[in-house]
């Protein structure tokens, strides 16, 4: 039940506007067209949760710069490789379906310093 209207039900005997499968397909199509689901478009009362536009976090740009700088320093300062028992061909980019993008198999990376240790 969403906003007082029953859109789908797991019980086949009840009247429903769309089936569960149709509703999931509609959400997937909407997600592929827009890229993200903005909850404020669906439920106007919680539009304040929208993190885009005018009410965006004022520290967003600073945070983005800090994260970019840290990532650049890590990539520049170390040589990266997969763990000892994994080959490049075995690296899997499969994902688990859910609210977030979670890797099916965790990535284990090993970093080696590029410079002698006394320079760090």
TrEMBL record:
- Which organism's genome codes for this protein? Heracleum sosnowskyi
Q: Name one GO molecular function term.
A: heme binding
List all membrane-crossing ranges: none
* Xref: InterPro entries: Cyt_P450_sf
Q: Which family does it belong to?
A: Belongs to the cytochrome P450 family.
Listed name of the protein: Cytochrome P450
Query: Which key words are in the record?
Result: Heme, Iron, Metal-binding, Monooxygenase, Oxidoreductase
Cofactor(s) required, per the database record: heme
The coiled-coil segments of this chain are none
